[in-house]
């Protein structure tokens, strides 16, 4: 499972209200502003916090109930489904043929998860005969009395006919997976001309039981076969291979998909729609990309590195991709970022349906690698309970690092490492849980920056500790010993212990089973040939451990680095390191592999030395971030100018961010450098950041640079130019911006809304109302607030239509972030429209989402 953009963001929000930040539309999130510590903070489209009222302080013990693994009474063996659809009613008519057997103890009953069905019949199949069985059904559990008692050596087969009505369910959801009704009809009547008619499913965590009866637990495994009867113009996709496709006399077609390798029920999927299918191969196996027809010309550019990823991961793990095929389908309105269904991954169309111009700014390698790696960690070996979810998600998260390291180099991988560390540390300001946690209120709570970003960083530390050869050998052992089964964290630990010969309980206990992370304060001094390095662990040791930290410290003497391995085991510890003279630099954790909040005392001279002698981009990045407050110093500003020419784009971007509002001695030269990067840099992220930096210089005219950027090939750069012109509009640019009003690009729509919020007239009032349906759900939060800002300049008598639109969205939009944006848009108008106060109070009173009610209470 890959988070949706907003799903991730809602998990890393802090407990302070802040102004919304402009979204950066790139495949990777980029740092917003220099961090004052070692960590980097990603640019976030949403900066609204979870309320302090709902934050559980990290120092409190858990109060949630213990969540054991599901007891296995019956083993699912195989499920065959025969389904057809009523698009108008949004129903599924199904027949499920289930093969099962008792797990160990004899059984005369089978209990299945089946949410909101009309059950028509339940029969046992014996030879060629069928016999009706008695059952009870409470709309959630189907309890079937078998025809006799069966032992664990006696499989039996049942046939259930039913109607699934997912839209009639009381649905739940979470930040990561916004709905749990299992089966979704998109534009079912074809009335929305902006969306295709599609059908798709989403099973994680336990939502597939909303469209077929099953034992909906991650520690079950089954083979499967699905026959889908659809209108002939549609294409279908499901797990496994298409073994039959038959045209029917009524104009429909029945496709049969069969998966012969067993997988957990939540990994079963269907998709139906008017897809273009682009074919590829890997070692003779079919690899396919399902996209909307208008994106078929760029599908290979987006997905085409998939076979290379399959080869890389197969060789790296020593376990070949063994599933029958690999397909990826981009769908509309998906309720998460992506989902690792075996052999048939589902992805939000916003993630991968990119035109050539969008591809200039980003690719989809991160989500593609993430879901592919799940076919080893999550599909081949599945976490036996949601408590052990990091066994799926931490590995998938880390695959993004592994692929970037392989394909794009160590700097790109290191950048990902620090971004994800920052995302976890952001979440840790309001939430600290064990990585593998057996106490939670709802299984959806597991889908957070702990299971993903923290988990990936813990795996990185484990790799650095044991070494690459042992790390990947241990992963191979874990996969081969637990293949086609459900695993838990102890089995991963034992695989590493078997390979390394070392008792690693200390590592797994402190990193996987304890909450929190090290908070380190590092100082050093030099006397008589000795460096005294003091390491203090200042985290709350009542509910977080005092960590055992094997760390490398690097000293530079006469421009020669020397590495020293130390072992931190105490809350306050001083290490003596021999040095023939005072080192130019003492660097703790020079590889930046440690998951920690680190404050390391260094002088300006040491940080400058660190930058010029850095052996990786993160050492440069850290020096830039920590020296941004000293930008007026000539030596520091010279370093920043040097960084503007760095070969890695992330360093150039960091320097640009630190140069915002620069007033130092090299002012004219710095501005010329920034303007040059805005035009010439080969990376669109850098050109965009250069424009943003130019716009930070108050009372200075860079209008010609912004107007020139309106011709840039990159949407990201164009959006930044529009944002800059919003604060400093020019006559020359006005008509060119107006010519963009018909765009459908998400980046430009948000940028235009920002521009018109500050510079619009009554003409743009109608534009806001007309385009609101074209704005992506990810961007509505910002767009709707910009609409409210524009209406402040409209006469109150002319606002009614806009107010009505915002009120409807604040009350009814399915995404809580959009409802919040509409609410805040309305709240801007209360001073001039006092009656809105009662409306806002009513919206607040009727809101059921606790995240929103808590935020609303802070906005009063």
TrEMBL record:
> What residues form the membrane-spanning segments?
none
* InterPro entries per UniProt: Aminopeptidase_N-like_N (IPR045357), Aminopeptidase_N-like_N_sf (IPR042097), ARM-like (IPR011989), ARM-type_fold (IPR016024), Peptidase_M1 (IPR001930), Peptidase_M1_aminopeptidases (IPR050344), Peptidase_M1_dom (IPR014782), Peptidase_M4/M1_CTD_sf (IPR027268)
Name the source's superkingdom. Bacteria
Q: What is its EC number?
A: 3.4.11.2
Recite the UniProt keywords alphabetically. Aminopeptidase, Hydrolase, Metal-binding, Metalloprotease, Protease, Signal, Zinc
Q: Please provide, in alphabetical order, the Gene Ontology terms of the cellular component aspect for this entry.
A: cytoplasm; extracellular space; membrane
Q: What SUPFAM superfamilies does the record tag this protein with?
A: ARM repeat, Leukotriene A4 hydrolase N-terminal domain, Metalloproteases ('zincins'), catalytic domain
Q: Where is the Aminopeptidase N-like N-terminal domain?
A: 80-267
Catalyzed chemical reaction(s): Release of an N-terminal amino acid, Xaa-|-Yaa- from a peptide, amide or arylamide. Xaa is preferably Ala, but may be most amino acids including Pro (slow action). When a terminal hydrophobic residue is followed by a prolyl residue, the two may be released as an intact Xaa-Pro dipeptide
- Where does the Peptidase M1 membrane alanine aminopeptidase domain lie? 305-511
Q: What class of enzyme is it?
A: hydrolase
> Mind telling me what this protein is named?
Aminopeptidase N
| Signal sequence annotation | 1-21
| Known cofactor(s) | Zn(2+)
* Gene Ontology terms describing biological process: peptide catabolic process; proteolysis
Any GO molecular function: metalloaminopeptidase activity
Annotated family: Belongs to the peptidase M1 family.
- The species is Hymenobacter jejuensis
Q: Which PANTHER family match?
A: PROTEASE M1 ZINC METALLOPROTEASE (PTHR11533), PUROMYCIN-SENSITIVE AMINOPEPTIDASE-RELATED (PTHR11533:SF174)
């Amino acid at each position: 499972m890959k988070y949706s953009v907003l799903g991730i963001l809602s998990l890393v929000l802090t407990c302070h209200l802040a102004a919304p930040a402009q979204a950066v539309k790139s495949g990777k999130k980029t740092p917003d502003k220099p961090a004052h510590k070692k960590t980097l903070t990603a640019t976030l489209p949403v900066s609204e916090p979870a309320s302090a009222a709902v934050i559980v302080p990290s120092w409190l013990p858990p109060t949630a109930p213990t969540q054991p693994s599901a007891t296995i009474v019956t083993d699912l063996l195989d499920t065959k489904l025969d389904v057809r659809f009523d698009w108008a009613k949004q129903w599924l008519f199904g027949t499920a043929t289930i093969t099962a057997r008792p797990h160990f103890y004899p059984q005369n009953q089978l209990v299945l998860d089946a949410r909101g069905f009309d059950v028509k019949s339940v029969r046992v199949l014996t030879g060629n005969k069928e016999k009706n069985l008695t059952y009870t059904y409470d709309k959630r559990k189907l309890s079937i009395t078998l025809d006799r008692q069966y032992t664990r050596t006696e499989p039996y087969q049942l046939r259930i006919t039913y109607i699934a009505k997912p839209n009639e369910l009381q649905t739940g959801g979470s930040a990561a997976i916004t709905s749990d009704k299992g089966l979704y009809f998109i534009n079912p009547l074809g009335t929305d001309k902006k969306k295709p008619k599609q059908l798709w499913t989403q099973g994680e965590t336990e939502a597939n039981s909303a469209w077929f009866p099953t034992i909906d637990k991650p520690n079950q495994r089954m083979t499967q076969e699905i026959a889908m009867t659809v209108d002939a113009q549609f294409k279908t996709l499901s797990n496994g291979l298409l073994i039959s496709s038959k045209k029917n006399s009524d104009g429909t077609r029945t496709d049969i998909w069969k998966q012969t390798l067993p997988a957990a029920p939540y990994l079963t999927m269907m998709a139906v729609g008017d897809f273009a299918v682009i074919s590829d191969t890997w070692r003779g196996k079919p690899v396919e990309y399902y996209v909307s027809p208008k994106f078929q010309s760029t599908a290979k550019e987006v997905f085409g590195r998939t076979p290379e990823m399959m080869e890389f991961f197969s060789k790296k793990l020593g376990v070949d991709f063994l599933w029958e095929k690999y397909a990826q389908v981009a769908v509309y309105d998906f309720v998460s970022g992506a989902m690792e269904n075996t052999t048939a991954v589902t992805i939000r169309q916003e993630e991968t349906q990119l035109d050539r111009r969008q591809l200039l700014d980003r690719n989809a390698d991160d989500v593609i690698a993430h879901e592919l790696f799940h076919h080893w960690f999550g599909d081949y070996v599945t976490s036996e309970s949601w408590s052990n979810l990091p066994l799926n998600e931490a590995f998938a998260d880390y695959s993004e690092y592994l692929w970037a390291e392989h394909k794009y180099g160590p700097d790109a991988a290191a950048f990902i490492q620090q971004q994800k560390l920052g995302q976890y540390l952001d979440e840790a300001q309001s939430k600290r849980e064990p990585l593998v946690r057996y106490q939670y209120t709802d299984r959806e709570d597991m889908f957070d920056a702990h299971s993903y970003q923290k988990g990936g960083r813990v795996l990185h530390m484990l790799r650095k500790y044991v070494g690459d050869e042992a790390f990947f050998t241990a992963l191979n052992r874990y996969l081969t010993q637990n293949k086609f089964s459900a695993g838990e964290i102890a089995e991963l630990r034992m695989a590493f212990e078997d390979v390394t010969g070392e008792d690693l309980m200390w590592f797994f206990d402190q990193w996987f089973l304890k909450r929190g992370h090290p908070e380190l304060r590092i100082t050093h001094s030099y006397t008589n040939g000795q460096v005294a390095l003091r390491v203090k662990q200042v985290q709350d040791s009542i509910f977080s451990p005092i960590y055992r930290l094997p760390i490398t410290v690097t000293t530079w003497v006469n421009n020669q680095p020397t590495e020293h391995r130390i072992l931190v085991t105490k809350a306050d510890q001083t290490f003596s390191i021999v040095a023939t003279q005072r080192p130019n630099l003492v660097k703790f954790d020079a590889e930046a592999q440690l998951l920690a909040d680190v404050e390391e005392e260094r002088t300006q001279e040491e940080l400058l030395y660190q930058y010029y002698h850095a052996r990786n981009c993160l050492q440069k990045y850290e020096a830039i971030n920590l020296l941004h407050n000293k930008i007026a110093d000539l030596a520091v500003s010279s370093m920043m100018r040097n960084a503007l020419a760095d070969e890695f784009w992330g360093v150039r971007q960091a320097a640009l961010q630190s140069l915002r509002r620069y007033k130092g001695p090299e002012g004219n030269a710095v501005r010329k450098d920034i303007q040059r990067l805005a035009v010439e840099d080969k990376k669109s992220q850098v050109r965009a950041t250069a424009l943003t930096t130019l716009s930070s210089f108050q009372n200075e005219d860079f209008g010609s640079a912004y107007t020139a950027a309106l011709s840039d090939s990159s949407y990201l750069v164009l959006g930044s130019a529009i944002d800059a012109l919003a604060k400093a509009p020019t006559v020359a640019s006005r008509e060119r911006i107006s010519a963009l009003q018909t765009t459908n690009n998400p980046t430009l729509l948000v940028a235009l809304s920002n521009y018109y919020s500050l510079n619009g007239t009554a003409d743009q009032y109608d534009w806001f109302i007309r385009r609101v349906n074209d704005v992506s759900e990810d961007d509505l939060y910002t767009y709707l607030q910009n609409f409210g800002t524009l209406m402040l300049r409209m006469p109150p008598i002319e606002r009614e239509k806009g107010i009505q639109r915002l009120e409807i969205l604040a009350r009814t939009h399915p995404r809580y972030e959009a409802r919040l944006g509409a609410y805040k848009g309305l709240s801007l108008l209360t001073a001039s429209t006092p009656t809105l106060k009662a409306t806002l109070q009513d919206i607040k009173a009727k809101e059921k989402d606790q995240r929103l009610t808590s935020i609303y209470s802070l906005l009063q």
